[in-house]
Design brief:
Elements (H helix, E strand, L loop, with lengths): L1 E7 L20 H13 L6 E5 L2 E7 L4 E7 L7 E9 L16
Antiparallel strand pairs: 1-5, 2-3, 3-4, 4-5
Length: about 100
Amino acid sequence: MRDVIRFRSELFEVEPGEDERTNPGCYGKALAHWLRDRFAERGHPDASVVPEDFGWCVMLEREPALLWVGCASETEDDAEVDAEVDAAGHAAGDDGDGDGGRSL
């Protein structure tokens, strides 16, 4: 599953030097922290924010599969941000070949 939600907002300011932990010009830290706080309020207290090459990631689950939300904005002056929801990896017992762990 990979869905992208793109929106414009003045609420998530870019911090000076924020892209030093990502790639140059990749932002989204304020949105990631805001989402992490909302997920914590809704029963995901262990959600964490980590820098990635594309921006910032809110890691929700690691087992039985990765579940994360990527947060990115490609311009410091533009208020457009992206939130990408991704369930990556594979469930326990799944060997990752696309058959859900079934032997063919």
